[in-house]
Amino acid sequence: MKIMEIDFQDYQLSSQLYGHQHDVRRICVCDNAGIATSSRDKTVRFWGINPRNKNRYVESKVLVGHTSFVGPLAWISPNQEFPEGGIVSGGMDTLVCVWDLKTGDRVQVLRGHTMQVTGIVLDNGDIVSSSID
Fold first, then answer.
1. What are the E-state strand segments in the chain?
2. Please, what sign has the CA dihedral across residues 62, 126, 30, 116?
3. CB-based contacts of 18: which residues, under 8 Å, 6+ apart?
4. Is the distance from CB of 45 to CB of 54 less than 8 angstroms?
5. Are 37 and 30 in contact (CB under 8 A)?
6. Cα–Cα distance measured from residue 122 to residue 43, given in angstroms and rounded to the nearest whole number
7. Would you call 8 helix, strand, or coil by DSSP?
8. Is 98:129 a contact under the CB 8 Å cutoff?
9. What is the pLDDT of residue 80?
10. Model confidence over 43-66: pLDDT tens digits?
11. In 3D, which of 69, 71, 49 has the Cα closest to residue 60?
12. How many DSSP H helices and E strands does the chain contain?
């Protein structure tokens, strides 16, 4: 087994993101486009890279549509359907939502779980979700 040594003095806080009204439940790195966060405030927020300072982020979209806290997130890389990428979110409201980052619109709602959604992954374009149901 190889042990990796990390010098934590090389790391420093580069950004603080303010916007959510409650605790943040998940963070999703979205390639080089930015970061998505989900919260108990029922929102997903997308933070784009600040064009004037590449080490900082600016809130660019607030995605509203869940009726309870939001947890798992997955990134949809830019493609023909989502030219600026997309986000898939799951929540305590049992919903899996698909968001278009170009417009900020919720473009699809997947129903089927009877309890909170606990995980989301993308597998060759398919959305796979888990729940405690």
1. 24-30, 34-39, 43-49, 57-64, 70-76, 86-91, 96-100, 106-110, 117-123, 126-131
2. positive
3. none
4. no
5. no
6. 21
7. helix
8. no
9. 95
10. 999 999 888 887 789 999 999 999
11. 49
12. 0, 10
For residues 124 and 107, what is the distance between their CA atoms, to the nearest angstrom? Answer: 19
Side chain identity, residue 37: T
Reference 70, options 30, 114, 108, 20; nearest CA is 20
Residue partners of 17: CB distance under 8 A and separation at least 6:
35, 37, 45, 47, 57, 59
User: How far apart are the C-alpha atoms of 72 and 80, rounded to whole Å?
Assistant: 24
pLDDT, one tens digit per residue, over 84-122 is: 999 999 999 999 999 999 999 999 999 999 999 999 999
